[in-house]
Design goal:
Helix 1 packs antiparallel against helix 2. The longest helix is centred in the middle third of the chain and has 20 residues. It is elongated and about 90 Å long. Strands 1, 2, 3, 4, 5, 6, 7 and 8 form an eight-stranded mixed β-sheet that branches. It has twelve helices and twelve strands. By secondary structure, it is of the alpha+beta class.
Length: 382
């Protein structure tokens, strides 16, 4: 993890833990010293919440700066302003992304690059083939260079024994590239790891019966606001949008999309309801519905209605259900420029649509685990 700084944000009433580090953001040619916030649900705040993939784009574009030009103007808000003079930085876009990915793994209790390296070392020590050594060496090099010294948690020897082990007799280490590893030094490294394994084996451990308990979600899938006009052979995640043209039948009435059905059902006047259902697009259906009175109590009923519409959509379109299942157990972030109730909208909305998509996805998974669906399309109970 980048330091031991702790923070959090609240999303949908849930406390999402995170950490933070300093960073420079370049906006309009001026460099701002600011804080980069990294949250356990996979979102990163660099003057706006973004996914890890979008963060990489921010690095490539120079918005999050890892190089600082000599003479460039910089400031820290309400603190100071200056011009760079012979600036030096050890960060690169690749190194910063690697550190952030490690941080996300750590916040979620997953093995980070260091843990994956040590697991590869265990495999090598159990079966000392050159193939396994090469895998351990590759895993070692995958650790961000800034974090390798801490890999063994030994501040006296740092990662020296690890470098020697993955180099092997006659090989060369990162620290001493001009000096071959002798057999004596290599044997000492092997003994070091054997003693380390003994100490770890004797250390008490406790494993929760139902797996690790987490109070936050795994990495995120973001469904950006869009206006799909026609059905295509391979819509990708755009097919998960409510206005994607996926016709469905509800109570013997046909609708061109979930959006059409939702907005039509929201309207009190049956004649207007029919007009909304026949609108050219989901966006047009919303516009028509917005001009008509709502059903009484709609605000309290809308979440249940939307849940049933989503279940119907993915029951009647197995190809789209497969796309939803393909998101695994990721948090679904659904942007909706027209609603802070349904959309996440850079953390300002409640993201109810994303949450309902996760619910329906879980029901689809349950059918696979428990068998065919029960009454009403719901997963059966054991």
């Amino acid at each position: 993890m980048i330091g031991r700084r702790t923070t959090h944000r609240t999303a949908d009433g849930i406390r999402v833990p995170g950490t933070w580090r300093h960073a420079f953001i370049c906006n309009g040619g001026h460099y701002y010293l600011t804080d980069l916030f990294i949250y356990a649900d996979g979102l990163i705040d660099c003057w706006g919440l973004v996914t890890i993939e979008e963060f990489e784009d921010k690095l490539r574009s120079g918005w999050v700066a890892t190089s600082l030009p000599d003479g460039a103007s910089a400031s820290a808000h309400d603190l100071a302003a200056w011009n760079f003079s012979e600036p030096r930085t050890w960060l690169t876009p690749e190194l910063l992304v690697a550190e952030v990915r490690d941080t996300l793994d750590q916040l979620n209790g997953r093995p980070d690059s260091t843990a994956r390296c040590l697991a590869a070392v265990d495999v090598f020590l159990a079966d000392r083939t050159e193939e396994n050594r090469a895998a351990a060496r590759e895993a070692y090099l995958a650790i961000p260079a800034s974090q390798r010294h801490y890999a063994l948690g030994d501040m006296d020897r740092k990662d020296g024994p690890l470098q020697v082990l993955v180099a092997g007799p006659g090989g060369r280490t990162q620290s001493l590239p001009d000096t071959p590893v002798t057999q004596e030094v290599y044997d000492e490294a092997v003994s070091y790891f054997q003693e380390r394994a003994r100490w770890i084996a004797e250390r008490p451990s406790r494993i929760p019966a139902d797996g690790p308990a987490t109070s936050h979600a795994p990495p995120s899938v973001k469904l950006n606001h869009s206006y799909p006009q026609e059905r295509v052979a391979d819509p990708g995640r755009r097919g998960l949008r409510n206005d994607y043209p996926a016709p469905l039948e509800v109570a013997e009435v046909a609708y061109p999309s979930v959006a059409h059905a939702y907005w039509a059902l929201s309207v009190a006047d049956p004649a207007v309801r029919d007009t909304v259902a026949r609108a050219d697009t989901g966006d047009a259906a919303r516009t028509l519905a917005a001009e008509a009175p709502r059903r009484e109590g709609w605000e309290q009923a809308r979440t249940a209605v939307m849940t049933n519409l989503l279940r119907t959509k993915y029951d009647q379109h197995p190809d789209l259900a497969e796309i939803l299942l393909g998101t695994g157990d990721a948090t679904v972030i659904y942007d909706d420029a027209d609603s802070y109730f349904w959309g996440d909208n850079s953390g300002r909305g409640r993201n109810w649509m994303g949450r309902l998509l996760e619910l329906v996805r879980s029901e689809l998974h349950a059918r696979q685990v428990l068998g065919q669906a029960g009454p009403g399309g719901r997963p059966p109970m054991l």
